[in-house]
Write a structure and sequence with these properties.
Radius of gyration: 18 Å
Number of helices: 1
Largest sheet: 3 strands, antiparallel
Structural class: alpha+beta
Distance between the termini: 29 Å
């Protein structure tokens, strides 16, 4: 899986910073088969707070919120997403996020620049 930002994880084609990578009609590998992706147009939501993280009967429950605070008003955490996944999906997410975070925190090698 390409996590460098140079290509899409679903294809080997280059993508731009704001390209919507996941959309209907594309395919994703599931085992040894290729399944079609169906996108119902859910809006992108920025999250910066984890509101729920628990395990119930082998299912991971994760919920994310977006924090808002303006002027003299009290802060609000707006629920942005509620996810449920089996342990295999959670392990895959854990590995992928670990790689992405590691890549993001690795300093750029400037010794080869021009």
């Amino acid at each position: 899986m390409d996590l460098t930002g140079k290509g899409c994880a679903l294809t080997d084609q280059p993508i731009s910073q704001n390209d919507v990578v996941i959309r209907s009609g594309r395919k994703i590998a599931v085992g040894d088969q290729w399944w079609e992706i169906r996108d119902n147009g859910e809006p992108i939501k920025y999250t910066d707070y984890i509101t729920e993280a628990r395990l119930v009967h082998g299912t991971i429950y994760l919920s994310f919120g977006a924090c808002f605070m303006d002027a003299n008003n009290e802060g609000i955490v707006d629920i942005a997403a509620r996810l449920r996944m089996d342990l295999a999906a959670a392990q895959s997410l854990h590995n992928m996020l670990g790689q992405m975070i590691s890549n993001a925190l690795t300093p750029t090698d400037t010794s080869k620049a021009n």
